[in-house]
Amino acid sequence: MLIVRAMRRFFDLDTRLPHSNRALNMIWVPGVILYLVALVLKWQTDQLDEIYLLLVLGAIVVVLLRLQQYRPARTVLLALLPYTLYSALELELALTNSAWLKEYDDAFGTSQGFALIWLFTFLLIARNQKKQLEKERLLREQEEKAKRLIEAQNVELERLVSERTATLTQQAEELREALTELRITQTQLIQSEKMASLGELTAGIAHEIQNPLNFVTNFSDVSAELIDELEEERQRPDRDPELEAELLIDLKQNLQKITHHGQRAASIVRGMLEHSRASTGERQPVDLNVLADEYLRLAYHGLRAKDKSFNATLVTNFDPELGTIQAVSQDLGRVLLNLFTNAFYAVQKRKEHCPDGYTPTVSVTTHHQPDGDVQVRVRDNGTGIPEAVQKKIFQPFFTTKPTGEGTGLGLSLSYDIVTKGHNGTLTVETTEGEGTEFVITLPRADSPESA
Asked: Most buried residue, 22, 72, 104, 389, by most Cβ within 10 Å?
């Protein structure tokens, strides 16, 4: 019973072979039946133990044969075979009253010892095999557990990656939409800046064009009067040739003045159309002296159209040897208009804070440099630019003007037009509270850079 119990535990029969385990649990029943039969039939009980042991060994062998896929079971089976064969042979000889047991008692004793040694040796081997298999089983379980953990982590990581990918995709889409809106807004702001400069120019043109139109109107009226006088003189019987000649000379001069001021008005209108027209980017010879003088006065009259009380001194120092440069006149006109408008704004603000003893002055100077480049300097004696913001004035959307008075694109666009569009430079020299000077440097028509 102890052997059977140990085998059941050793091989975990309740798990591996539950039916055989329940059968072995009743292994005592054949022993009791065998003993009772022996008592009834009055058998000799000397060999009952050997018969019952052989029965138990046979049952164990049957179970081990069913467990032959399990390596320790095969080892135990191999351990039991010699002892089982020996026990069967000894029992047979004992039942047949063979004299061999007494004649070869020493040989049978040696064989029994050998079978027992064989049995215990292989039982130890089976025990070691079971321990090794148990270690391998535990290792496999740990590996399976680790594998399941890794698989769970992979599933979780895939879920997190999917969520993160979805989030990044959504953020990328939002960024694309934001970028599209930003570009649309930027285009609108640039257009607003152009329209603002066009508004300044239009106000200046409206005031500037009024003068030649007044001259045209006045000289037309005078010319009509001269024609009336001439007709009256021709109808007199005593005509005065000298008076008629004098009237004709005056009429010719008036017509010349009408033509001159009409051309002046047409030039102003043409300049306005060029400024408002989209730039083609084609460079043509441009007289900077004429361009700077025209836009200086247009910017001044544009500000006066808003504030009739504003007055400023305009100073021009044009280099007569300047000549022409290859440039886009519309773009340079926008740059000059922006610089002049800022200059007038600065002197107007200083005038508001220092009404007494201060004369607003804006000057423009052109200069031909020895290296072939030309310079345009726009200077004012206004409020100046604080040192803290001097490095930011050419950045897009940065402005020192109050909200609603500037978009922060004027100087940025001017900088791009000068540096990127004309291969020049645009710098600023300023002292806070004293004034500001912007310096435009441009290559001449024959400069290698402009070629």
From this structure: 72
